[in-house]
Amino acid sequence: MKTINEILTLIERFFEGDTTLEEERWLYDYFRQTKELPEELKEYRETFLDFDAIAFAETTEIETIKLEPENNLLEMEQPVSSAPPKYRKLWKQIAGIAAMIAIVVGSIWAYQIYQNNLLQNIYGGSYMIVDGQRIDNLHEILPEIKRTLSLADAIETTPTAQLIDEAEQDLLNQIQDAQERERIRQLLNQ
Q1: Distance, CA of 182 to CA of 188 (rounded, Å)
Q2: 128 by DSSP, 3-state: which?
């Protein structure tokens, strides 16, 4: 009796097209005859039962042709092809396509996780209050954060004298009394 690891290795070799006919027959018989399969092998039962049915149908067809006298094939033996059956090539193609899809989906998923972690590392803990509601979703508030940072950069690059003049002008514009405004303007210009 083979161990589970030996059977899994044999299954892997089967899908790679590296098994002998005897090994394939052993796998077909094992999955057909074993009632209680280990968990690791249950997913393969239907596949090998299907392959067994295909192999049985091909064998029956060859035997029928050999037994029919009008075909004069009684003396002829069917050549055994060394090339792997077509279904093995199909499995390899399907496995290759599935692997490519898995790589693409996995890459997109990993990139999104990377972007979220990067965003969390840079702006973690940031929030906005809009209409009395706190918004913590960084993806939602990111445009506002970027706008505020660009405004801060613009202020940082503005000359200090210009900033002081703008602040003084804002202060003076808020004073309602014209005489008081003029008096403060004179004080600021001294």
Answers
A1: 10
A2: strand
**What's the CA gap between 187 and 181, in Å, rounded?**
10
Q: What is the pLDDT of residues 95-152, one digit of tens each?
A: 889 999 999 999 999 999 998 888 888 888 888 888 888 888 888 888 888 888 888 8
Backbone angles phi, psi at 34, to 5 degrees: -80, 120
- Distance between CA atoms of residues 42 and 3, nearest Å: 15
Q: What's the Cα-to-Cα distance from 20 to each of 17, 119, 133, 175, rounded to whole Å? A: 9, 55, 69, 98
| CA-based nearest residue to 146, from 110, 122, 164 | 122
Dig out the tokens for 23 from the structure: 């090994």
The residue written with tokens 């972007």 in the block is 115
pLDDT in tens, 3-50: 888 888 988 998 888 889 888 889 888 888 888 888 888 888 888 888
Task: Give the angle subtended at the CA of 107 by the CAs of 104 and 109, to the nearest 5°.
Answer: 110
Cα 190 to Cα 188: distance, rounded to the nearest angstrom: 6
Position 97 scores a pLDDT of 93
Query: Could you please report the per-residue DSSP string of 144-185?
Result: HHHHHHHHHHHHHHS-HHHHHHHHHHHHHHH---HHHHHHHH
Specify the pTM.
Answer: 0.34
Distance CA 154, CA 148 (A): 10
**129 beta partners:** 134
